[in-house]
Amino acid sequence: MASADETEGGLTSVDFIQLQHYMEESSLRVRDVIKEFHPGGRYAKYTTGECLSVEGFCLFLKTYLEVEDFPPNFCQKLFRYFQQAEKDGSPKCSMPKEGGVFLRDVSCYFSVLEEGQPREKLEFTFKLYDKDGNGLLDSSEVDRIIAQMMRAADYLGWDVTELRPVLKDMMSAIDVDDSGTVTLEEWVKGGLNNVPLLVLLGLRMTEKDGQHIWRLKHFNKPTYCGVCENMLLGLGKQGLYCNYCAYTVHNQCANKNPEPCARTFVKNKQEIGKATHDWIKADCNSSKCQVCFKKIKTLAGKHCVWCQETRHDDCVVPGVPKCDCGPLKDHILPPWAIYPVSKEEDTNLLNVTPDGHILQIAPILDTHPLLVFVNPKSGGKQGERK
């Protein structure tokens, strides 16, 4: 839930959802629209220096969202929101002239929310604030980018008090020479290696087997981080949750080499048919160990991704007994039934993973694997839009 309220300069959660809906229906990108407001563009007369008037701002929204009859009251409310954001921004930055808003801040905010590829999106954000085109961002320009990320994150339900130091630490890490400036190469490299930033921007890393696929999540009951083992605190979405194995971490702990995700295929043909558990550290509090039958204390146990069996850490013995995939075994295609082959063995290249593995399936008798398709336009929007 957003922290902003219905006071002047604030947006409600309903306002933000409505804005997201408009963005989902639009086919344009910020980079397409911003050119029209630069010198020589169709709408250049609506900008004064780097600032947009209220009329220019409303025209920007109508153009970007492809909505000719965009509600005037909503447009005015969004304009006041950006005005208030400027007042609350860094004191190092000059205020927009004549009560306008900065075009680059508006563009950065919307670019954070729209879909995009990692490198392309990070490069756009960098060039947006590299006003003099010298290939460097100074600390004040970086602060403005972080400010826009914080505002977007707030309405997406992030705990921004936790995210801000994560981004600050990233900036300190990539400025290796302590020059106070960041190059494009440093910015892109740092961004692509910062998991919370990638999740915030809606970016996907190149998927590899054993790599977590994170999403931000709100937890309704006490939940602990698998890395630092401290509780996830906050009222909004307190941490990152792996869609594949349910491993959970603080935003800032996602960069601290968490345990790998469950495998989805074996590495060679010798492992085909060897049904072994994939143990993931989990909060098994109040669950019973299925070896010694005693209760498992918080973060003192592991669960198998495939059969859902839980055990104490000390009761986990590799390979004993074999994993039977649990009550849903009839519908599961386990990793020991999927194996990599060479290009010579499979010239059709029909099953290639994002990181280049060519896979084949060794069928398991008397099973009926089930594929589940989710419509992202329906319900909780948990699917991936194609």
From TrEMBL:
According to the entry, every stretch annotated as the Phorbol-ester/DAG-type domain falls at 211-261, 276-323
Looking at the record, the residues that make up the EF-hand domain are: 117-152, 162-197
Residues annotated as transmembrane: none
Catalytic reaction(s) noted: a 1,2-diacyl-sn-glycerol + ATP = a 1,2-diacyl-sn-glycero-3-phosphate + ADP + H(+)
According to the entry, every stretch annotated as the DAGKc domain falls at 365-386
What UniProt keywords are attached to this protein's entry? Calcium, Metal-binding, Zinc
Q: Which Pfam families has this protein been placed in?
A: C1_1 (PF00130), DAG_kinase_N (PF14513), EF-hand_7 (PF13499)
Classify the source by domain of life: Eukaryota
InterPro entries for this protein: C1-like_sf, DAG_kinase_typeI_N, DGK, DGK_typeI_N_sf, Diacylglycerol_kinase_cat_dom, EF-hand-dom_pair, EF_Hand_1_Ca_BS, EF_hand_dom
Q: What name does the UniProt record give this protein?
A: Diacylglycerol kinase
